[in-house]
Amino acid sequence: MQRIEFRAMGCQMLAVVDRETEPAGERLAQVPGWFEVWEQRLSRFRPDSELSRANDLAGTPVALSPVLWEVCLAALDAARLTAGLVQPTLLSALEAAGYDRSFDGLPADGSSSTALAPATDPQAWTRVNLVKTSRSLIAPADIRLDLGGIAKGWAADRAAQRLAARGPALVDAGGDVAVSGPMAAGQGWPIGVADPSSESGALVETIRLRRGGVATSGRDYRRWHHDGAWQHHILDPRTGRPAQTDVVSATVVAPCAQLAESAAKAALILGSQQAIPWLDLRPHLSGLLILEDGSVLRSRRWNSPQRN
Amino acid sequence: MSNHPRSRRPGSAAPGAKVLLTAAALAGTLLGWGALARKDQSVAALASTGLAAELPPLPTLVAPPKTAGLPLASGPSIAAAPLRRVSAPSSSAGISGPVTVTRSSR
Prior knowledge:
The structure holds 2 protein chains of 2 kinds.
Chain A: E1 2-8, E2 11-17, H1 22-29, H2 31-42, H3 50-56, E3 62-63, H4 66-81, H5 91-96, E4 111-112, E5 129-131, E6 136-138, H6 148-163, E7 169-173, E8 176-179, E9 189-194, E10 203-209, E11 212-218, E12 223-226, E13 229-232, E14 235-236, E15 241-242, E16 247-254, H7 257-270, H8 272-280, E17 286-291, E18 296-298
Parallel strand pairs in A: 4-12
Antiparallel strand pairs in A: 1-2, 2-7, 3-6, 5-6, 7-8, 8-11, 9-10, 11-16, 12-13, 14-15, 16-17, 17-18
Helix pairs in contact in A: 2-6, 4-7, 6-7, 7-8
Chain B: H1 15-49, E1 100-102
């Protein structure tokens, strides 16, 4: 087994190939370069990124690169899956909530002085159009896109897919994990689910993932002090504010990491009472929720045997 | 009267000459063997006094040396390749804990 760790997209990244060959190691060494290219396309924190330029041109059609096109498509798919709970149109609200720079660049005390914005339009994503024939984006002038969460899931999926030609692969993009298939010995990849209340890195449990992705959305880490209260980065589009929910951390297993990331975010926003039925209604999803009181809830298919 | 020179018939020489030559050759052979025998006796005498160690070894068939257990000569030093950031911590069969942990983005 060979592995490489690096930072990209404001997160710690890990890529693993379960094969000892030289070609596998060489391919693995290319992964940070892939992420750098993708970040240059997709980051809202880089003024010269393709996404930032597209946001500057909001209101007019913009031709997109294949990478930005794919991630925008994935973002709108996520919005459809979650009925708009997860959508890429919340950049202005995120900035208004204080998340106006890379998380690494926020003040050490977590404070931010940006004024809160009024509630956003929960249907804003329906006004974003992607034109397949010209591979172009047409967004209203008042909408700027943020692809942060979906971009990491997409990158994990794509990197695992590229590595798979050299051996069974796992890519962890800041907690959004994609695997290309079973490990070399045939079993699923052992992946821990972090306990958000633990300072020492304790796990709630360890799952075995044979294919697809797993992602966790939480309000335990990316938070900051703003306007007299702690804020976090999971916004509820219905209010434009950080979601008020009893779920501290939601982990979802899905056919791919980008889908797992979107579903985990939706489950957190929904709260435990609605999230478990929402997951149970979708055969391709299973989830584990950790609540404020420390209790753990699992959806019906969480221990699905085909996952192990 | 005839004046023809007298021809000497082959083999008409004194038979003693042939015997003399044969005896001389035999004597020479015996003397040679005797000299060699005296030289071997001198080498043996030197060996008994320890002086033979200074002489070059006589070519002979000997058993090959026993090499088992001897330390190997170190080969030429090989410069280490530049370290790669890729690491190989373990085989998948020996994994005891999770390969990674899913948590909120950090």
